[in-house]
Automatic annotation (TrEMBL):
Native source species: Deinandra increscens subsp. villosa
Family: Belongs to the cytochrome P450 family.
Protein name: Cytochrome P450
GO molecular function: heme binding; iron ion binding; monooxygenase activity; oxidoreductase activity, acting on paired donors, with incorporation or reduction of molecular oxygen
PANTHER family: CYTOCHROME P450, CYTOCHROME P450, FAMILY 76, SUBFAMILY C, POLYPEPTIDE 5-RELATED
Keyword vocabulary terms for this entry: Heme, Iron, Metal-binding, Monooxygenase, Oxidoreductase, Signal
Pfam family, one: p450
Coiled-coil regions listed: none
Residues binding heme: 405
Cofactor(s) essential for the protein: heme
Length: 463
């Protein structure tokens, strides 16, 4: 009844078979035929996909109030039910208070400034580690992951969770976090036919719960220890209090803390790692652009000043970051939303409980929106006011509206400092003298759009 147009669904399965491996690309191709707002049937579910700046604006701004629910995948139903942040079903009072608390303690300008010493310390440790890799092949995503986890775990708990030399624990934590994300987007009969949801036929719910239990063990012990200190009335000076102290002061239960921490780890590590990996791959492939960035960094910074400098003033370097996020939008269809109430978008009806994607990938690759969209061209951002703050609907790597990424300031700071240090301090080469021009840039669809083949590099310190 006045639904957006779309391809004819097959009986029972609907359009499931047409959305198999790369659903963001399949949906972008349907948009070329049916228009910027399309309907797809996935079993009994209706999925509406927006693929133009205007359609995105109607969803994220005009109807944001009614379209800001989250559709919780069956695989996470038991693990994340009604907790708290990324997967809060609607913008309820818990979600609001959590966002306010996280803003004040983690993401405000004051909080970011307060975290810089800690962030620099973890980054310096990563660079020291790289100095000792001497000609060996490094999976850079793993090092960055460990660095980000330790930065976050210190902000939250004043404690390192990982050791750069212990790949195994890092791998276990990363695997668990990624598996939970992967389960949430794996095509699941329980989502398409909720009537059989309780059966968990593919075992995804059980698997996510097992990972959640294992990952909770990282925070569980710290929370218990801190509660014991509070019972013993151990005095902690105000300036030494961390995020965990604030959560306990706000009467969060241990289960709630475990979930919130896990949500922050999931949302805040893989996204940044993926963005840096794509930026490095593009710079390797486009040596002329790499030379321009190197020249700018060398002119404006020294090794000692990277961590103290305001990197947002580096115009070409920041244009490279924006161009990476355009060409490789890390969260390609945003985190799926749900219509809390029926409403109209582009004169079509969006029924209550329909799932919505804003296909940022399609908008970023649309030649009607971006000239020569498949080419990495940072120059397009020079002298342009387009930014990722959620108001320019042709460029939405952090989403928009009330569910926009709250971690944006922290993400940008990490992207800038880690990438600038790696560029300024090292030369990077591919193993076996592989020609960077032939680097495989295939994508792997998921909540985050990863590089299918992780970047493996040899780092040598610049003379
Ligand atoms: C390059 C890095 C990052 C990118 C591209 C990114 C992108 C996104 C996107 C697209 C969304 C969904 C927005 C929407 O639905 O409109 C989101 C949500 C979220 N992000 Fe980020 N993010 C990044 C880093 C971070 C970091 C570092 C943190 C925190 C440590 C974080 C925390 C969150 C949270 C908690 C949400 C859920 C917000 C809600 O549902 O209310 N993100 N992010």
């Amino acid at each position: 009844k006045n639904l957006p147009p779309g391809p004819q669904p097959w009986p029972i399965i609907g359009n499931m078979h047409q959305m198999a491996k790369n659903p963001h690309i399949a949906a972008a191709n349907f948009a070329k035929k049916y228009g910027p707002l399309i309907s797809l049937r996935l079993g009994t579910r209706l999925l509406v996909v927006a693929s133009s700046p205007d359609a995105a604006m109607e969803i994220l701004k005009t109807q944001d109030r009614y379209l800001s629910g989250r559709s919780i995948p069956d695989a996470l139903q038991q693990s994340f039910i009604d907790y708290y942040f990324v997967w809060a079903r609607d913008c309820n009072k818990h979600w609001k208070s959590c966002r306010t608390l996280c803003w004040a303690e983690l993401f405000s300008a004051k909080a970011i400034e307060a975290q810089s010493t800690l962030q620099n310390e973890k980054l310096a440790r990563m660079l020291d580690f790289l100095n000792n890799t001497q000609g060996t092949v490094v999976k850079i995503e793993e090092l960055i992951f460990t660095t980000l986890i330790n930065t976050l775990s210190n902000i939250l708990f004043s404690k390192d969770f990982l050791d750069l030399k212990d790949d195994e624990t890092a791998h276990r934590l990363k695997f668990g976090l990624l598996k939970i994300l992967e389960n949430s987007v794996t095509p699941n009969v329980s989502d398409f036919f909720p009537i059989v949801g309780g059966l968990d036929l593919q075992g995804l719910r059980k698997d996510s719960l097992n990972h959640l239990d294992e990952l909770s063990s990282f925070s569980d012990a710290v929370v218990k220890e801190r509660r014991a200190q509070i019972t013993k009335k151990v005095h902690v000076a105000v300036h030494e209090k961390d995020f965990l102290d604030r959560l306990l002061e706000n009467n969060f239960t241990t289960a709630q803390i475990n979930i919130l921490v896990l949500e922050l780890f999931i949302a805040g590590t893989d996204t940044v790692v993926t963005a840096i990996e794509w930026a490095m791959a593009e710079l390797l492939k486009n040596q002329n652009i790499m030379h321009k960035v190197q020249a700018e960094l060398k002119r404006e910074l020294s090794y000692d000043s990277i961590m103290k400098s305001d990197l947002s003033k580096l115009t070409y370097f920041n244009a490279c970051i924006k161009e990476t996020l355009r060409l490789h939008p890390v969260v390609p269809v945003l985190i799926p939303r749900r219509a809390l109430k029926a409403c109209e978008v582009m004169n079509f009806t969006i029924p209550q409980n329909a799932q919505l994607w804003v296909n940022v990938w399609a908008i970023s690759h649309d030649p009607k929106v971006w000239e020569d969209p498949n080419t990495f061209k940072p120059e397009r951002f020079l002298g342009s006011n387009i930014n990722f703050t959620g108001h320019d609907y042709e460029f939405l790597p952090f989403g928009g509206g009330r569910r926009m990424c709250p971690g944006l300031p922290s993400a940008v700071k990490s992207l800038q400092t880690i990438l600038a240090s790696l560029i300024l301090v090292y030369d990077w080469t591919l193993p076996n003298d592989e020609d960077p021009k032939t680097l495989d840039m295939s994508e792997k669809f998921g909540v985050t759009l990863q590089k299918e083949k992780p970047l493996q590099l040899i780092f040598s310190r610049k003379k």
